[in-house]
Amino acid sequence: MSSSEAELNAVAPQLRSLRRRAGLTLEAAAHSAGLSPAHLSRLETGRRQPSLPMLLALARIYGTTVSELLGETVADPDAIVRAADMEPTGAGGWTYWQAGAPGGGMQALRVRVPYGSQGDIVRVHPGEEWLYVLKGRLGLRLGDTAHVLAPGDSAHFDSLTPHRLAAEDQDGVELLFVHTLLQSPTAALCLGPITGELP
Hints:
Layout: H1 3-21, H2 26-33, H3 37-44, H4 52-62, H5 66-69, E1 88-91, E2 94-98, E3 106-113, E4 128-135, E5 138-142, E6 145-149, E7 154-158, E8 163-167, E9 173-180
């Protein structure tokens, strides 16, 4: 069993516990999430594995986070990330700064992409991505459509859409980047140039 399968199996007891904490019956929670009561029951007993959209919907209904649904605890409850504490990490020519507190259902990064770096890598993975261009021009290919985003432009898309990011200017591009996570926040992030992984 992979670590991601183990995490999804571990969500079953959390789903029932958090539903009860929210004071919802199986029928009421299922209706709010657009599921049948039988489907939600199978999720709560571990006979079905939830998809990310289901986890996001249930987290909203139960007034919690995907992280809590997965049974994860955050070591540091501090929601503030100070600029002085943002250590740069390099991978594949890109530079990353953690821009959000660890342990949530999403990850926020400030990213610098140099010109000519990783522009040919197509990424496909579960989740959602949102990005906002701070400086420079970003080439973003979503499926068969190419876009050029300028400072102040943003994009929000399903990460199962094949996508590529590249700097359009010799000086590179800087952006804010947020994506949803299914893996444990304690797992090492794969920031390298591997097809199908996150940038």
